[in-house]
Amino acid sequence: MFYNYIKIGWRNLMRQKVFSAINIVGMTVAFCVAFLLGIAAYFEWSYDQFHANKNSVVQVYTAERMADGSVQHNSSQAAPFGPTIEKECAAVQSSSRFGWDYESVSYKDNSLDLHITFVDPSFLSMFSFPVQEGDKNALQKPSQILITRKAADKLFHGESPIGKLVQINMNNHLQPFTIAGVMADVPRNSSIDFEVLCSFQNVIAALEDPNTWDNQAYQVFVQLRPHTTPAMLEQQMKAVVHRYRTNKLNSMKENGVTPGADGELLSMRTLPLAEMHFREESGAGGDINPFYPWMLLIMALLIVGTASINFINLSMGRSFTRAGEIGLRKALGAVRTQLIMQFWCEALIVCSIAFIGSLVLGAMMLPSFNRLFSYHLDFSILLNVKLISWTIVAFFFVTILAGGYPAWLIARTNLIEVLKGKMSLGKSSLLRNTLIIVQFVVAVLLISSTAVLWQQLNYLRTRPMGFDTAQVISIPVTGNVDASRVLARMQQRLDGNSHIISSTASFMNLGTGLAGGESTWKVGFDFNGHEAKTVWVPVEYDYLKTLGLRLVAGRDFSRSYGADSNTVIINQKLAASLDGGKDVIGQHFEFDGQQIQIIGIVKDFNFKSLRQGIGPLALKLTPSLQAAAVFVKVKPTDLPGAMATVEKAWKEVVPQGDFRGSFLNENVNRMYIAEARLATIIVCSAILAILISCMGLFAVAVLVIGQRNREIGIRKVMGASVSSIVTLLSAGFLKLVVIAIVIATPIAWYIMSTWLQHFAYRIQIQWWLFVLVGLAALIIAFFTISIQTIRTAFMNPVKSIKTA
């Protein structure tokens, strides 16, 4: 019986090729978009889920209360913190410290800049990063390292790396290490990344005081004992804070900091491994808004939903041409269930063809999708049993939604009316109107969200950062390249060049350069009996001049002062926190065993993204520093020529290194790739949703206007004008669009207002934006239905009355 339904359904679809093609194309595109967005959302949610101990491993971070009542979170901990809580907190089964850097790894004549991570031996038992070859206990010895398969292939070109001796730049000194094992490559959906694993004892050996609690520079992961909870660990860590951070707590009290709801000034909190990808507190992830994958999934559901509504409307419109068939079936004894099954099978055929077509189309579009949205997705993700199960369930739900209602509606029609060739789907149009409203709610919501998102993105890209972005070239420095020597040699080559104004170097790049994001180093120091905390940035001479920073007090670093290597220039934010900013110029404080003098105050500038506010900053003159970036300020007259000049000088000085220079405005734009990606997704979804909605609106217009042909003919005979008839026919549809606008506007405002709260600097949503979006939706809807209304208004009234 089911086979007969399929066979008859296929014949019906073949007889109505245009109708079938419209439905198949619409559903294919909707399924394809849902397929791509769905696997992207699934990929985001899959981060760190492959670890066997994902439910028992947590990251520890600090929640520090400030004098103004706010709370600052920091993932960095002191070197002794991990071993201490492992000994003193009963909830801790094991812990591992985590620190990383990009360093040059050399073997014979081959040298690569690799991502080196320093961990404790327990790291390998806590996390599921398998050692494929060699010694699984390699990290017990500081002189041994583990390397990933991909990095080994690049460094050894197919040779077995086991037992090979390599040189790694450690603290400006080459040290020999033996490769004791090869690990599987880190999965793309991992918040923790590395290419080389090295014992944390190498970090301890390089520290002047390994037992100090003042240097907060390393992340700490903890595996909980069975039957313990993160809350139990947080409670136990309170004693550790009070025992080892006494100076810090006393300083906070002196600075007027008041305890929080838990009675603590400084709290140690835990972050589940599964949340690292979405939480800024982790220091490893946090670039992705937790709502982002939900947004992808919602976009997918909305697109499929609007396509299903479109399918329903087209099926209802098509049913009038099948009145004879339906009547004959009923007259021959077909029951309602059989008619419903017949029409549902036709929907199943359409959706099945569309589903297969969407997979083919998705496979063709996946490379472009990856490039457009900076993903690395492939079809292997579809092998997940859970994902396959949900896809099958969703597919059958869509077929029932798209084909079930029209089938039920058609099957319940009156037999006598059908045999007369008159088939009415009922006077009640509540559901039909509701479907139209839902479609345009989706369209208006997406268009409104797109407008707000693009405004915010444009604001982020164009708002002054406080430093020169248009004329400054940023060149990342990695590996064992001596930045100070490179800077000096480049200055010699660029000196007197007509393109060049000045150059400098810094421990911190600005924005997201071609070698990665900006890096900051936060330190604490005692200032007149009060502890202060600031981002600490070693810089070279001419830093202020090159970046266009403005002094508001004091002076710049100068080669005329031999003692300037023990001086700092601070920003206004830090100055305000030091004795209220009064007379800080010339004052001293001790840091790292040196007496440091404050010689200047620079105007605040955004050294991090505009998602965050401006924090305290200290610029420390450090000649011969191991810089992260070299900055070159060029004249604006010929920017491409200036870039070529700088690249040529770089390659002469560093022939073995890659030139990855970019202008700072490009770095700034790259900080907002996630927002740009989201904007592109919503724009594409909005365009698709409005197109599908208009198709559905047109189908309903054909359906409703077709039922009113006799009325229109009578009105024309009675003297009604074409314009009055067009207005009459359009008013009902436009009223539905207005209702959709009224519903969608507050929803869009709430969603986008909530999203904007993630930015320290954000636009104010203007009322006129929603007015423009509403007018655009009305105009699009009017032109969609005007095609049919104008055609009907010009019809011969005699013909309309006779054939209606």
UniProtKB/TrEMBL annotation:
MacB-like periplasmic core domain boundaries: 20-239, 515-642
Any GO CC annotation of this UniProt entry: plasma membrane
Name under which the protein is recorded: ABC transporter permease
Membrane-topology descriptor: Multi-pass membrane protein
Source species, domain of life: Bacteria
Organism: Chitinophaga silvisoli
A Pfam family per the record: MacB_PCD
Location of the ABC3 transporter permease C-terminal domain: 298-414, 685-797
Record-linked PANTHER family: ABC-TYPE MACROLIDE FAMILY EXPORT SYSTEM PERMEASE COMPONENT 2 (PTHR30572:SF18), MEMBRANE COMPONENT OF TRANSPORTER-RELATED (PTHR30572)
Gene Ontology molecular function terms on file: transmembrane transporter activity
UniProt keyword annotations, A-Z: Cell membrane, Membrane, Transmembrane, Transmembrane helix
Membrane spanning residue stretches: 21-43, 291-312, 343-367, 387-409, 430-454, 678-705, 726-752, 767-787
InterPro entries for the chain: ABC3_permease_C, MacB_PCD, Macrolide_Exporter_MacB
Cell compartment(s), UniProt: Cell membrane
